[in-house]
Design goal:
Blueprint: E1 2-4, H1 9-17, E2 22-24, H2 39-61, E3 68-77, E4 80-81, H3 88-98, E5 102-113, E6 116-128, H4 133-141, E7 162-166, H5 169-173, H6 177-186
Parallel strand pairs: 1-2, 1-3
Antiparallel strand pairs: 3-4, 3-5, 5-6, 6-7
Helix pairs in contact: 3-4
Length: about 190
Amino acid sequence: MLYLASASPRRQELLRQIGVAFEALPSDVEESRARDERPQDYVLRVALDKARAVARTLRARGLATHPVLGADTEVVLDEEVLGKPRDANHGKDMLARLAGRTHEVLSAVALVHESQELTALSRSTVTFGAIGQEDIAKYWDSGEPSDKAGAYAIQGRAAAFVARIEGSYSGIVGLPLFELTQLLTQIGYRRA
């Protein structure tokens, strides 16, 4: 078993998909990027911070020591980390900026287990077709994008906007399974 430092239903579904037993223990790590921090360094740091925070909590409570998995996913356009939308206007603006363009999705995983701290990064690119203002408004009104990096969920209604992807689909969803499986192998974890 492992602990997942996230409440994300998408990450939980992906772990179930590959037969990983887990307990979700969300972290309360603040996700804010340092002034000159590169996007890839940011996602790796946040994923590791989440895993470390939950590992500290487990040790403080005297709970069983199982690996702790932290993850972070960000949408990057022109080296700008878009983050999650603050409100409707911000979310619609993000979608308008992504329309007809290619952007990068960075998804980091971190495992903290005993004295080990392992990280991996998945880089994918997503190209959106043209999206009209009416479609952006309808999508926002669906409620789906309000808490998503880049204001969209590729596994949901936003799939209709995607012209092409290169890289890890699961990484774009929020948990790069190939990279995670490699880290689990390094610590000797066996999936069901």
